[in-house]
Amino acid sequence: MRMKPTERDTKIYANLLKMCEMAREQGESTTSCEAALSNIVMAKEPSYREVLLCIIVQMMLDSTLKASEKWSSFNARGIYDNGPVKRFLAEQNVPHTKSGPLNISKAAEGINMVWAAPRRSSEIATQVVEIVLYLEAHNSFEEVQAIGVSLIKKLLCEAVRIQDLSVDIPPSKDPDNLTKACIQLIKNAPDSGNTPQQIAAKLLKCYHLSIHSPIDVIGGEDRASVTSTTSNKPGDINEECYGRILKVYEITIKPFDEGRIVDSYDCIEKYKQHSEQQIHEVIVICRPEDCPEHIQKSGFDFYIGSVEHQDVKYYFWNIFEWIASMFQRMPDDGKELFSVALNGYINDINTSEAVKVEWRKIHGIE
């Protein structure tokens, strides 16, 4: 008889807690997969270890399941996205993704070499496959649990290591120091565009809060890899008042070329399908080198120039000049609020390690 989702999730969560308890109590792990498990946990992409953990907890319920042949039977969305696996990782302060197992295994029939070969980190994916095949060949509850305990033990160590990178910086009111810190973060730890997007969103939010403005700043919570089409927004960040969009911002340190402009316009058109509001302007905050070749240059430093695409005009602002100007015009309360917000974001367990390390360097902490 097939298990109901609520019953399945309850059992998975209980097994995770039991394995966590065992991981904290036991000494050094001695499974046959130790080297591969260590590599998977230390890999840059957490999604690989999340896939493996999903497989382990499902095999503890049904040892006959074969992820190498039928990955869909593991119901990654159900047990990870809104289920016990991500909940467990969050409770243990283990860095985790929003929907990693699902994203990294789209269209995969099985977690096998066909899946692993085209991966960006194919060597890590291959080691995941090797462990999966080992589990399927040694599929006793005790063997699967032992691998799970070892994986969780390593995840707990990783959580401590990441937590040790956190640092509490006193709030600053100095616009020059804040500007330099933000620019250094963007240049040295862009984190695939997440760093500039987070800085921009927090600058706008803290500015409006500090002047008691009725304007709401919407956006900045999603990772930069989430497209506006996926999030059903006309841009990365919106300024809104009583539900009406006043300004649309795109934040990037990648080329905003003709293709990006077309993508942006498509997002606006899609947004207009379920909104009566018309959007005819977008502000692109970027570096000068990110502007399209056919830009109509303004001759200024801050406002670089503009591009018209059908009925939408794109205005390009220099991201570094804009950051400096925002701090110059922001009240002290806003600058302190921004400092606290940025430090909190950097200390979050899911913020890139490179950003944490760069933040420590900026403040002379090695």
Write up what this structure looks like:
The protein has 366 residues and is an alpha/beta fold. It contains 16 helices and seven strands. The chain has helices at residues 5-25, 34-42, 47-59, 76-81, 84-91, 100-104, 113-116, 122-137, 141-163, 175-188, 194-210, 228-231, 258-272, 319-329, 332-347, 353-362, and strands at residues 216-219, 237-241, 244-251, 281-286, 296-297, 303-309, 312-318. A seven-stranded mixed beta sheet has the order 1-2-3-4-7-6-5, with helices on both faces. Strand 6 (303-309) and strand 7 (312-318) form a beta hairpin. Helix 2 packs parallel to helix 9, helix 3 (47-59) runs parallel beside helix 8 (122-137) and helix 10 (175-188) packs antiparallel against helix 14 (319-329). The mean pLDDT is 94.
Spell out the key features of this protein.
16 helices; single chain; alpha/beta; 11% strand; 366 residues; 7 strands; 7-stranded mixed β-sheet
